[in-house]
Predict the structure.
Amino acid sequence: MSPHADLRVELAQLTNRTYQVRKLSHPGRWAAGIIVAILVILLVAAFAQGQIDWPVVAEFLTTATIMKGIVNTLLISALSMILGLVLGVVFAMMKQSPNPVNKAVAEGYIWVFRGTPVMLQLLIWFNIALVFPTIGIPGVLSWRTIDVVTPFVAAVLALGINEGAYMTEVVRAGLLSVDKGQSEAAATLGMSPAQTFRRIVLPQTLRVIIPPIGNSAIGMLKTSSLATAISARELLNATQQIYFVNGQVIELLMVAGIWYLAATTVLSVIQYFIERHFGRGFDGQQAARKVEPLEAEGK
Amino acid sequence: MNQIPNASIAVKAVNVTKSFGQTQVLRGVDLEVRKGEVFCLLGPSGGGKSTLLRCINHLETPDDGVIWVDGAIVGYELRGGVLHELPPRVARAQQRKIGMVFQHFNLFPHKTALENVMEGPLVVLKQGKDEAQTKALARLEQVGLAEQAHHYPSQLSGGQKQRVAIARALAMEPELMLFDEPTSALDPELVGEVLSVMKDLAASGTTMIVVTHEVGFARAVADCVGIMVEGTMREFGDPETVFSNPSDPRVQAFLAAVIEQDF
């Protein structure tokens, strides 16, 4: 039988202009919420009572070795990210280029560095001295590779060049998202390709690619921990240095976890503000605020 | 070119030919526009009107033929009977003397109306910020948008956007203004405000080439109209003659359709 049979109301019954409304109650939601909350409480309680010496965690949270590790982690991540972005912009433009050589080189770069594990790339850069014992300009300058490509440098090169392969695709997608009419309008004003790119296309590209770049930066911060394998003195390596000596393995891994979480949280906040900056002209609310200086400018 | 165009001519196109892949869009178009004149270019879509306009502004390069704008060939230098492609810097200097208004406005969305208008003078003409701003405000005033100077394009109506785009083109003090269907993307009630700005511009003696479907505007403002069909200029002359006595059957059919729609 159709439910409509029961829902029938004669028009004559609609006497009021307003009615009291009774919403459905959702007992299922309540039950699910309570069960999940209990499970979380049990989990937290288990860790609180587990064999983790929390005072030790607190003690090592801010020791000099750990702090130095954090600085290096931040440096490696930031430098790798910058290298990745620069490579991404360069190779994205090469991939868009009408020049078939540029295009092929960009595609080859992506193919190699996106197609091999980043851990493998780290190990290769670390051992690059086996391939080129010395580097420099032949006959003019020469250094021993082992002195130049320190674990820190190897980490930045490996992570940055790997990131660049992904960034190329991110930047290219951003460039494609800007309407061709934008460059044409700039051309009719007589702007050069460089001016058009920097002032018109790039700002609009950034708006689109900042969210994926933010994700990558957060990913990079965590991936930089792989550099412990080539004994770069970053955060995870610092915690290992300590627990190899004192045996407080879990406590020190907790220390690392807390710092990684803190750093990624800060990055998320920074990302929010950068996104807001490049959203101008697109985000109605922010633009409306910018209208105010009109009166102030009457000078 | 065999004859030197006289001083009163602003634009002359000879045998302009252009193909995109297999499609021949322009099949040897000739055109002559005098200084201070308003030339309206009409015709069914796909007839090559926009492509011709884009060739005049060097956004497209013709496969054959030449376009002469105000004393020089667009994009080329004539040396020893051969056309040599101009280096980009020189071509850009030509481009900036030709203003262009697009069907879809193409305003810079991350810049306010004022910043849009200031961009060319600031970056290309290397004007100081104060000078550029003062002049840009005057341009916005001219199109009736001084109040909206600090609005972003997303906060403007279509008609307002197109007026900002006109102000942006005028800020470069062009010798020639090109309009590529400036009202085709607008809601009907917003068409009037844009056409009225264009009428003022025409009255001030600016040389204008307008690709449009607005027969009423062409009749009222144009000194000369052309009707393009399938890549050729089928009719060319003063509006009265062209609109009342078209000889080409395709043009007759086109005009019958648009004028009926237009009344």
User: Anything to note?
Assistant: The first helix of chain B runs from residue 49 to 56. Chain B has two domains: 1-70+175-263, 108-168. Chain B has a mean pLDDT of 91. Chain B touches chain A at residues 57-59, 88-89, 92-93, 95-96, 98-100, 102, 104, 106-112, 119-120, 123-124, 147, 149-155, 165, 168-169, 172 (CB under 8 Å).
